[in-house]
Amino acid sequence: MSSQFDGVSVVKRANVYFDGKCVSHTVLFPDGSRKTVGVILPSTLTFNTGAPEVVEINAGRCRVRLKGESGWKEYAAGQRFSAPGDSAFDIETLELLDYVCHFG
Q: CB-based burial of residue 81 (10 Å sphere; 0-12 exposed, 13-18 middle, 19+ buried)?
């Protein structure tokens, strides 16, 4: 996992979800792709996906349950999980979670 993105644009307006429990910024790449970089405060949230997502954990710990699955899987810094498009996932952040979300 890279520690920085070079040659990108950042949307200045923050994406604020779930009453401020999740805050991110959108990063735009020259090839037209986008990612978000953000944090999630300790909470249990449900995210709906349009495009497939890969969530890269920079710091913190969480548990994730993909739509249609009964069990939770735990992830920590240095790990990532994938969620299919047109779906959803539950995430329980056990401490402040610093993440990058890759779309597509």
A: middle
